[in-house]
Amino acid sequence: MATRVPGISAPRRRVVPVWAVALVVVAALLVGAGAFLSVRALTGVDVPDAPRGLRLDERSGRLVASWEPVSGASGYQLVRDDGLVVYRGDETEAVDVAVPAGEHTYRVVALRGDASSPPSEPKSVRTGNGWGVYAPLVAQFPELLPQAPDAVAAWNDARCVRRYSGGRDEVGPSETGNGRVRTVFVVRCTAGAVDRPFGVFWFASKDALNAEYSRSSATSRPVRWRHGTGLIDENGRGVFKITDDPARELAMIVVLRTPAQDVLRTVDSMPI
């Protein structure tokens, strides 16, 4: 039996009103909902839908991909094989100009700010032989040059092959060469027949192009053509700068004189 201490009343049990319990429950639900929405925003749960309708069109030396637009997307990424991003922008069509020959798988991802969608269903395609990493250079001349090594160009059915060899003053021999390669890429072509040869050379810098041009000027006379300046030597070999297009300022065209073609007339007729 409990002993009651004189002067001290026994504690009364406090009854919590039902409405107070309900208020606490509602507040907890609101806090929980707010926390859920905050986590959703922070974790990027609200992402765009995965793009649909990915289509692949294999063309000579390049791959054209297209897909359906995604509502609310601010941009897209086209990914080749194991994560190589070949396009990032807001269009729903992209061209992979540097795709190598072989079997490739593509996916497209929609972007919204910093959030990205799940990838689209993958699509695979087999592509033919192309110019590889130099395809963007060849693509600067879509009519003059074939866009794949085994294709023909729109201009005079020109066929081209890669031929790269540094000049003697670039790589050697040691008494004349400096060991530094100026020429990045060269294609040599024949237009219509083997007696109409020409080539396009790309250089590592404007200084490299000017150095080659200066070397040729020692034995050549200056001429004007419809896209810039040029030189023609005593053997009829012409080298021509492209001066009115900054995107192609590192390219130089070389045309050889033959009985079938006049150098200046030929270069003026080229679709540059």
UniProtKB/TrEMBL annotation:
<dbReference type="InterPro" id="IPR036116">
    <property type="entry name" value="FN3_sf"/>
</dbReference>
<keyword id="KW-0378">Hydrolase</keyword>
<dbReference type="InterPro" id="IPR013783">
    <property type="entry name" value="Ig-like_fold"/>
</dbReference>
<dbReference type="InterPro" id="IPR003961">
    <property type="entry name" value="FN3_dom"/>
</dbReference>
<keyword id="KW-0119">Carbohydrate metabolism</keyword>
<keyword id="KW-0624">Polysaccharide degradation</keyword>
<keyword id="KW-0326">Glycosidase</keyword>
<protein>
    <recommendedName>
        <fullName>Fibronectin type-III domain-containing protein</fullName>
    </recommendedName>
</protein>
